[in-house]
Amino acid sequence: MARPQSSEHKMSREEAGRLGGKATSKKHDRSFYQMIGKKGGEATSDAHDSQFYKEIGRKGGEATSETHNKEFYREIGRKGGSS
What is the largest CA-CA distance in the chain? Predict the structure, then answer.
Protein backbone atom coordinates (compact mmCIF):
# COMPACT_ATOMS: atom_id res chain seq x y z
CA MET A 1 0.00 0.00 0.00
CA ALA A 2 1.24 3.48 -0.81
CA ARG A 3 2.59 5.52 2.02
CA PRO A 4 0.46 8.58 2.79
CA GLN A 5 2.02 11.90 1.87
CA SER A 6 2.84 14.30 4.63
CA SER A 7 4.24 17.80 4.68
CA GLU A 8 7.59 16.18 5.50
CA HIS A 9 7.60 13.89 2.47
CA LYS A 10 6.40 14.87 -0.98
CA MET A 11 6.40 11.92 -3.34
CA SER A 12 8.62 12.41 -6.38
CA ARG A 13 7.40 11.57 -9.86
CA GLU A 14 9.90 8.74 -9.94
CA GLU A 15 8.55 7.25 -6.72
CA ALA A 16 4.92 7.70 -7.81
CA GLY A 17 5.69 6.00 -11.12
CA ARG A 18 7.46 3.12 -9.41
CA LEU A 19 4.56 2.58 -7.00
CA GLY A 20 2.02 2.81 -9.82
CA GLY A 21 4.01 0.31 -11.87
CA LYS A 22 4.15 -2.12 -8.96
CA ALA A 23 0.40 -1.85 -8.40
CA THR A 24 -0.30 -2.39 -12.10
CA SER A 25 1.99 -5.42 -12.27
CA LYS A 26 0.15 -7.01 -9.34
CA LYS A 27 -3.20 -6.58 -11.11
CA HIS A 28 -2.26 -7.71 -14.62
CA ASP A 29 -0.54 -10.66 -16.27
CA ARG A 30 1.79 -10.97 -19.24
CA SER A 31 -1.03 -10.99 -21.80
CA PHE A 32 -2.14 -7.53 -20.60
CA TYR A 33 1.30 -6.09 -21.31
CA GLN A 34 1.43 -7.83 -24.69
CA MET A 35 -1.97 -6.35 -25.59
CA ILE A 36 -1.09 -2.77 -24.60
CA GLY A 37 2.28 -3.07 -26.35
CA LYS A 38 0.56 -4.17 -29.54
CA LYS A 39 -1.95 -1.31 -29.30
CA GLY A 40 0.86 1.18 -28.73
CA GLY A 41 2.82 -0.16 -31.68
CA GLU A 42 -0.21 0.07 -33.95
CA ALA A 43 -0.97 3.63 -32.79
CA THR A 44 2.63 4.67 -33.43
CA SER A 45 2.54 3.06 -36.86
CA ASP A 46 -0.68 4.90 -37.72
CA ALA A 47 0.75 8.23 -36.54
CA HIS A 48 4.15 8.09 -38.28
CA ASP A 49 5.56 7.51 -41.74
CA SER A 50 8.63 5.59 -42.91
CA GLN A 51 10.85 8.66 -42.43
CA PHE A 52 10.15 8.51 -38.68
CA TYR A 53 11.33 4.91 -38.49
CA LYS A 54 14.43 5.67 -40.58
CA GLU A 55 15.34 8.48 -38.19
CA ILE A 56 14.88 6.49 -34.98
CA GLY A 57 16.79 3.60 -36.53
CA ARG A 58 19.66 5.92 -37.42
CA LYS A 59 19.72 7.39 -33.91
CA GLY A 60 19.64 3.93 -32.34
CA GLY A 61 22.44 2.73 -34.58
CA GLU A 62 24.60 5.72 -33.66
CA ALA A 63 23.96 5.23 -29.95
CA THR A 64 24.81 1.52 -30.20
CA SER A 65 28.02 2.18 -32.13
CA GLU A 66 29.14 4.63 -29.44
CA THR A 67 28.81 2.03 -26.69
CA HIS A 68 29.89 -1.19 -28.46
CA ASN A 69 33.05 -2.37 -30.17
CA LYS A 70 33.73 -4.51 -33.26
CA GLU A 71 33.55 -7.71 -31.24
CA PHE A 72 29.94 -6.94 -30.33
CA TYR A 73 29.02 -6.63 -34.01
CA ARG A 74 30.92 -9.82 -34.87
CA GLU A 75 29.01 -11.70 -32.18
CA ILE A 76 25.56 -10.49 -33.20
CA GLY A 77 26.49 -11.22 -36.83
CA ARG A 78 27.39 -14.78 -35.87
CA LYS A 79 24.13 -15.18 -33.95
CA GLY A 80 22.09 -13.80 -36.85
CA GLY A 81 23.89 -15.95 -39.36
CA SER A 82 23.23 -19.13 -37.39
CA SER A 83 19.46 -18.68 -37.10
Answer: 59
